[in-house]
Specification:
The structure is a homodimer of 272-residue chains. In chain A, the strands form 3 sheets. A 5-stranded parallel beta sheet of chain A has the order 3-2-4-1-5, sandwiched between helices. Chain A has a 5-stranded mixed beta sheet with strand order 6-9-12-10-11, with helices on both faces. In chain A, strands 7-8 form a two-stranded antiparallel ribbon. In chain A, helix 2 links the parallel strand 2 (47-50) and strand 3. In chain A, helix 3 crosses helix 4 (113-123). With 272 residues, chain A is an alpha/beta fold. Helices cover 26% and strands 20% of the residues of chain A. Chains A and B meet through helix 1, helix 4, strand 5, helix 5 and strand 6 of A and helix 1, helix 4, strand 5, helix 5 and strand 6 of B. Strand 6 (155-160) of chain A pairs antiparallel with strand 6 of chain B.
């Protein structure tokens, strides 16, 4: 099997500078979904501040010179505050290090990127941002669907199940309409809340809902359910990895006929 | 400067099979934003069917055995129908080729992926889907912003400016609300239509709007404007590359103070 070899021209525009911070998305977990630019940053960085959901396989690609700091909010416990992360970024950058801030998925989506950019701005620290593959893209590929489809939906919404104030409020009336497609991040704990709000606004309980756990990873699991059954099926599935919930999308019907598609569709059957 | 070298374990799960189609997103244009998996597919494919917006720098990474077919809708003229693309995919796959269907951006967003997947299903052709970096992610990184922000917006909408029926209709009332953030694909021609609909539904003409042309490419340009000024400023800018329009986002204020950020902010000044 041919192996990819990065040509010398690749990542040509990624040359980390001393005292600079690169904010990069690591993608959803599969190291093969890293961009060439993020890989270059991993290999060049002297300090890497990483989140809890960045997979170990990705951290193994760091250069030998790199010092790795886990600033994952759950990994270290609740005491790793956003302020602490900002302070660490600034301290390392001002010490002249090449700093990589590695966030899972795409740093620009639900990544609290702004707070860290503002801290850099305030301290006069230079930075650049490298986009990554967001979980929704990997998850939808895993169920053989696309996020938009001619004649079905010409828009898609990405939203979060909870925010700093608790469960996040959204335009439930619009989301409850037939044909709406949404990717809900961090939607496990808020599943019953989201279901309640949508049904209250007239959503059809038979609306397709799919939950993809560990999208793109070797332990990816797929739960095919409906809005009406979501909380019960989710409780039974006992997902403990990061999960992406699709409202208005079911896995492609042909999936079970295509055994080499990287998706597990037997979960619902196990549960049923 | 260290060069990235793809470790032997990388793209380990990408091994294209004879008679299989890999649908992959090429990202927004910068070859360094390819995923390792897409690069592996480029190197392994025997036939590559590519869209008009896939950049030449990316096509240069194809293996020497690859036959490249341009199926771009504008590249070949209007006669390259979706049906023709589907036929070519099936013909090559049934001839036992390793086929790569390369779409710009992320194949699962506004990529008409479903029609091609259905054609494969109908013909019994096996496939897999490799997600890519979508233009919105690269564009927002280019203006130093993020698509969501705590306390500002906990959801973001991706929509298209026009569909097969002409200008696409959307939930303008919801989009017109203060604080809404949306990424509008293919929004150049529909700028006046979108502006009209939003203003009709009460949007503030001072709402920030940013248009990023050729996101991530060396010829990236940024137009900072407002909803009220959008059509006039866009006409004056004469963008001829692919453009992504952000509703509710302005470039980060500090950008001009950070000359190494890959963004051009002098365009508006040129225009003013």
């Amino acid at each position: 099997m041919p192996q990819p070899t990065a040509a010398p021209t690749l990542a040509g525009r990624m040359c980390m500078q001393s005292g600079q911070v690169v904010f990069a998305g690591s993608g959803p977990g599969d190291p093969d979904l890293l961009t060439l630019k993020a890989l270059a940053a991993l290999q060049q960085a002297e300090v890497i501040l990483f989140d809890r959901l960045v997979s170990p396989e990705i951290l193994e690609l760091a250069g030998p010179q790199a010092i790795l700091e886990n600033v994952g909010k759950e990994g270290f416990g609740a005491q790793v505050s956003q302020q602490h992360i900002c302070n660490r970024l600034i301290t390392h950058a001002q010490a002249g290090k090449r700093v990589l801030r590695l966030k899972s998925g795409d740093a620009t989506l639900f990544g609290r990127l702004d707070e860290e950019l503002s801290a850099c701005d305030a301290a006069g620290v230079r930075y650049q941002i490298v986009p990554g593959i967001t979980a929704a893209s990997a998850a939808v590929a895993g169920i053989g669907q696309s996020l938009t489809q001619r004649g079905r939906n010409s828009s898609v919404r990405y939203l979060t199940g909870h925010d700093t104030q608790g469960f996040a409020d959204h335009d439930w009336q619009a989301l409850a309409r037939p044909g709406e497609v949404a990717a809900i991040y961090m939607g496990k704990k808020s599943a019953r809340f989201v279901q309640g709000r949508l049904l209250m606004h007239g959503a059809n309980p038979a609306t397709a809902v799919t939950v993809v756990e560990n999208a793109s990873r070797t332990n990816q699991r797929v739960l095919e359910t409906t809005l009406g059954q979501l909380p019960a099926d989710l409780a039974e599935a006992r997902f403990d990895g990061p999960a992406l919930t699709f409202l208005g999308l079911a896995p492609r019907a042909s999936l079970t006929a295509l055994p080499d598609l990287p998706v597990q569709t037997d979960l619902k059957m196990e549960l049923a």
